[in-house]
Amino acid sequence: MPAVESTVQVRYAETDQMGVVYYANYLVWMEVARVAYCREAGFEYSDMERESGAYLAVTEARCSYRSPARFNDKVRIVCRVTEVRSRTVRFAYEMRRGGELLATGETLHAVTNAQGKMIRMPERYRKFFPLSR
């Protein structure tokens, strides 16, 4: 599946005293983009949890900051899947203001049940995350 784009407009509450977006908000924006990716792929993130008892738990998160975002900026987040295994999915992100790269990031997710035990991706959802060969 191709990359999916989302847009957020920086709220005042997301900035620090210097007027720069607080670093942890980039992780929130990655989640916004990831949920949009799933929706675009053809399913709601919450449906997978409710219908299959499968959760995509974040096991790793990384973000590299290049240029600060500020209040009222429109930030475009591009999300794509870069790795799929039977029990994990890796997403990559780019956050941009216009053509300017603000940050890049990655999250690795383990497929788990409600008790937090790793499980295989449910059959019904494999088509949305084709397995690597």
Summary of the model, kept short:
By secondary structure, the chain is an alpha+beta fold.
Please characterize this protein's 3D structure.
This protein has 133 residues and is α+β, with helices and mostly antiparallel strands. The chain contains 3 helices and 5 strands, in the order βααββββα. Helices cover 22% and strands 38% of the residues. It has a single domain (4-126), classed as Hotdog Thioesterase (Thiol Ester Dehydrase, Chain A), CATH 3.10.129. The protein has helices at 25-41, 45-52, 123-126, and strands at residues 4-9, 55-65, 74-84, 88-97, 100-112. It is elongated and about 45 Å long. The mean pLDDT is 94. The protein has a 5-stranded antiparallel beta sheet with strand order 1-3-4-5-2, with helices on one face.
CATH topology: Thiol Ester Dehydrase, Chain A
Shape: elongated
Oligomer category:
single chain
Low-confidence stretches: none
Alpha-beta content class: alpha+beta
Mean pLDDT equals 94
| Gyration radius, in Å | 16 Å
CATH superfamily: Hotdog Thioesterase
Beta-strand portion reads 35-45%
CATH architectural type:
Roll
CATH class descriptor: Alpha Beta
Distance, first to last CA = 16 Å
Cross-sheet strand order for the largest sheet: 1-3-4-5-2
- Helix content, binned percent: 10-25%
**Strand elements, count:** 5
What is the H/E order? EHHEEEEH
